[in-house]
Amino acid sequence: GGKFEVLSAMLEKLANVYAQVPAVQYQLAVAYLAGNETDKAVASLTRALSSDTNYPDALLLLADIQIKTGRVDPAIVSLKQLSQQNPQIVQARLLLANAYRIQGDFATALDIYQQLEADYPTNFEIPLLMGTTYVQQKNNVAARQAFTRALNLSPDNFTVLEYLVNLDLREKQFTSAAQG
Fold first, then answer.
1. Model pTM?
2. Helix (H) or strand (E) holding 69
3. How many CB atoms lie within 10 A of CB 44?
4. Dihedral (CA of 34, 35, 36, 37) sign
5. What CA–CA distances, in Å, run from 168 to 55, 68, 146, 178?
6. Alpha-helical regions (H) of 37-124
7. Residue 123 and residue 139 in contact, taking contact as beta carbons nearer than 8 Å
8. Chain segment 85-94, per-residue pLDDT in tens
9. Half-sphere exposure of residue 142, counting CA atoms within 13 Å on the CB side?
10. Which of the listed residues 12, 34, 47, 63 has the most CB atoms within 10 Å of its CB?
């Protein structure tokens, strides 16, 4: 805890001097999060956004905190706006899809992933996320197709292989149970 307290104290002094500079408030929020002080981080992010309502780093971090603390609706609102204004910010679109997944809106999440896959066809993480979403829907066929696309893009990726093996095991168990 000691290092974070010293860093936080230094950043707090800076934040008081440069109260209207969102980057300073953002860095203070990052330090607070590193020290597990979520409430203080949210307060700093809120101050950053009061100076610049479209500060992407602050919007992303605040939305991430909101999602992790179960406040998905406000995260969706800000991430939708950020994604529409700045479609090149992939993390905003990924967080938005994750927020919809958490809400159980798999169709909207998959729409976002499909747009991302079209925009970034060489990024293996996007079909991997699609696959995990299909698994949540119990759509093993679509999951296998997505995991296979991810594996083709990243053949040595252990995580992708693990998902495919788990899918094989799950299907085999269902087959064995059905034959039982």
1. 0.82
2. none
3. 29
4. negative
5. 44, 30, 14, 15
6. 38-51, 56-68, 72-85, 90-103, 106-119
7. no
8. 999 999 999 9
9. 15
10. 63
Which H/E stretch holds residue 121?
A: none
Mean local confidence (pLDDT), 108-113 = 98
User: Using only C-alpha atoms, what is the Rg of the chain?
Assistant: 20
Give the C-alpha separation, 75 to 146, whole Å: 27
Supply angle C-alpha 35, 36, 41, rounded to 5: 90
Q: What is the percent of the chain where pLDDT is above 70?
A: 88
Averaged pLDDT score across all residues of the chain:
89
Question: Is 147 strand, coil or helix?
Answer: helix
Amino acid at 145: Q
What does the buried/exposed string (b/e) look like for 144-158 if buried means 16 or more CB atoms within 10 Å of the residue's CB? Answer: bebbebbbebbeeee
Residue 80, C-beta contacts closer than 8 angstroms, at least 6 positions apart: 96
Contacts (Cβ under 8 Å, ≥6 apart) of 125: 150
